[in-house]
């Protein structure tokens, strides 16, 4: 396969990713993500007062914002109520302003970066602006994903693609193309960590390009949510652990991650969400002891993690039910890969995996105990989703090894194609469930009457077919590249890092000791090592 054909296939996969996210962007009405009325109002006020868009209210905390933004989630917490409650005129241009204090303007509850940049897409049509913002975030993720993939050394690409694929359905697919700041938080950690690994492994202009992507994606997270700053620190530390070499060049390259950690620390300490998380997010009057809260939350923590796949938690305002096949297929895939990865790969890998795993456990545990609640209250799966993405990517990533480069997790062709098929099915069902929640009956009929849908867009059925087919195409490319990677690396040795035992020479001479050939010639490189070196340098 030529370099041009590989590039075209990669760009085709990027288009498929964008179309699949675009279908999710159209699958729900304005206000569908949690607290979206707050985020919409904050976006329209993201760049300060604007005539007819956002104006100061009676005091510093009150602002006049579009009434449609405030009224958007009329269906929230009402699973039997579709989006037609917004009214037929909701999609029209124009709106009145209404005073509210449920807005980020004049406060530091959320960082201002996400709201500022999204505010440049705000207009006098709430619906059109929301769709544009969703598609822009889908395009942002796609461009960063494809660009990072093309720049990464081949041995690091599987960590990026598989880490995203195994944690995408359904929650990330729902949140990335949204106007919720969690979109940038997910994009940030999904791309930043693999880019940092590539920054340490690449040479020349690729090193600088990957370093720039890592810094950019970190800034995206810092501008979106306060907890993203903490996750960025965890991701940087994991990349440092996996890439560590006791060499001067490593310490010089480590200056960039150190700068990222400093920026993240300032962002974390300056965010209003930080004090809220430290002091507790609710006002629970629980009489449980601290010990009981710790034990109870530890036992229930898998219920929070599995919520990103739809098990025990629903989409939207936690009111969009999914068929069990969604979480069953998705969890089967990720647990299968994690089980395959359970093998010793050195202290670097152990430190990185244990560190990120501890963060995924202790961060939500601390917030839950501080809030005096158990899993199911206050802390939602979307808060820990970036850490789960990071954990899976760390498990799959290779690490620097003094005995030779670790190649990471290796899956068989059957395993890879099984993942592709199951995730394709899970995404198609989840996309349908999300659309059906808001459109009502007739979702999968070409001209059927639906309770709600956008103007000037294809029918729900066409959007569902395009989105499902595009995701399937992206998974086919993922499977093809993953199986090709396995073919290039060759079979794994029985014990990694141990050379095969020397064989008895046929001429009756003494066997070689494994370090010098018996005929005095230079030892030849192992075929697997040669393939790994060629793959890493590509």
The biggest beta sheet is recorded as: 3 strands, antiparallel
Report the mean per-residue pLDDT as an integer.
88
Computed structural class: mainly alpha
Helical content class: 55-70%
Q: Can you tell me the residue ranges where pLDDT is under 50 for at least 5 consecutive residues?
A: 492-538
Compressed to H and E, one letter per element, the order equals HHEEHEHHHHHHHHHHHHHHHHH
Put simply, the count of helices is: 20
* Number of DSSP-assigned strands: 3
Supply Rg: 25 Å
Strand fraction band?
Answer: under 5%
What quaternary form is this? single chain
Describe the structure concisely:
The protein has 20 helices and 3 strands.
Topology record:
Layout lengths: L2 H24 L9 H9 L10 E2 L6 E4 H5 L25 E4 L12 H7 L6 H26 L2 H15 L2 H5 L6 H20 L3 H18 L3 H18 L4 H6 L1 H16 L1 H8 L10 H16 L18 H17 L6 H24 L10 H16 L16 H27 L20 H30 L37 H11 L1
Antiparallel strand pairs: 1-2, 2-3
